[in-house]
Specification:
With about 240 residues, the protein is an all-alpha fold. It has one domain. It is about 75% helix and about 0% strand. The protein starts with 8 loop residues before the first helix and ends with a helix. It comes from Phocaeicola sartorii.
Amino acid sequence: MTKEIRINDSEYAQILQQAVSEIQTARTTVARQVNTTVNSVYWNIGKLLFDRNLESGYGSGVVKRLSVDLKEQFPDMGLSPRNLWNMKRLYERYYQEDTKLLQAVAVLPWGHNLLLLDKSLSANEALFYAEECLQKGWSRDMLLNAIKMNTYAARQTQIKTNNFDLVLPVAQANYANEVFKSSYNLGFLGITEPVKELELEKRLVAKIRSFILELLCKGLHNISYANKFIMQSDLN
């Protein structure tokens, strides 16, 4: 007869903490992938409008027509004329910037990127705020407050220390939640508003299911090995 493996509360807390950390990391990875994909599409549409030399004056008719036709096929993706122009603004603002800045804004939620565009920040300022959002899980309102308080300038005069190791799990959770609640991302994933929470849950579960199964399989394998070891010890 197999003996039940017992662990103390401290050991269980460690197992739980590791499992939570793994799941949060997986959710953050999925969130970054969603944002990167959405922003890549927006970037390419913005480039298309830029390459066609469409401006808000004489090109407004073309963009309005494009918006109508796109929304017929993708009604929940935020493809209004205004947002199409924002995609062009995104491309115009960053296409000549260095890779580090491009990589930072590529994984930001779309609302965060629009805020950075509206504030007409320098490249260094945009990079600073983008990295702060990613490292600390800032919501859009927190980003706005930081810009209003000119946190970038204040930080330049401070000793550069941080406690990212302590706050990273919370930051990861905040970032993932911000991404998954974005109406733009929900539309991109084909999630309709009335069943947003249910469909979102299903799709997130589908995204990380393989990871969780792998984690469980490893755990079961370890338990099986431990049981065999205990049985062998009993026989001896």
